[in-house]
Specification:
- With about 150 residues, the protein is an alpha+beta fold.
- About 50% of the residues lie in helices and about 15% in strands.
- The protein has 6 helices and 4 strands; from the N terminus they run H-H-E-H-H-E-H-E-E-H.
- Strand 3 and strand 4 form a beta hairpin.
- Helix 3 packs across helix 6.
- It is globular, with a radius of gyration of 17 Å.
Length: about 150
């Protein structure tokens, strides 16, 4: 009995740790998060990087890993980052549409906004939908050529 309870406890702890590592807050108020990021961008004189994706999406998790790893220096200090959960293409679609529907060709998708909420760049062609195959170097190159250059 102790063994079974111990196994259940380990499994529950493992799920809790895994859930904590997921990049998209599925219960966030995405519109409010964007407004907070825009306000911070105005105060800090930088832009906003909106990342549309979902926790079930391996490419989205790969992009998030790169944003927190090899590409962090490109983003830090230049952008307020907002991650928008699109679920199974059934959540926050009004925000995606507001910014030109960058998720139409797949996720993850990114939009760079100026502090006054103008679109500076949008990945409309599914450019990051194969982030797993791009790897860290490919993601870094894409972000430096398109996202950082837009800033």
């Amino acid at each position: 009995m102790r063994r079974i309870l111990g196994s259940i406890a380990v499994a529950a702890l493992s799920l809790a740790v895994q859930a904590a590592e997921l990049p998209y807050n599925e219960s966030a108020n995405a519109a409010a998060d964007v407004q907070r990021a825009l306000a911070a961008a105005r105060a800090d004189r930088n832009d906003v990087l909106v990342v549309f994706g979902a926790n079930w999406c391996p490419d989205c998790r790969e992009l998030d890993k790169a944003l927190n790893g090899s590409s962090h220096a490109l983003i830090a200090g230049h952008f307020q980052v907002v991650k928008i959960d699109v679920g199974r293409f059934d959540k926050n679609l009004e925000l995606a549409n507001q910014y030109g529907n960058p998720i139409r060709m797949g996720i993850p998708a990114v939009v760079v906004l100026s502090a006054d909420n103008r679109i500076v760049y949008s990945s409309k062609g599914g450019e990051l939908a194969n982030a797993r195959k791009m790897g860290d170097t490919g993601i870094y190159d894409f972000l430096s050529q398109h996202v950082a250059a837009a800033h």
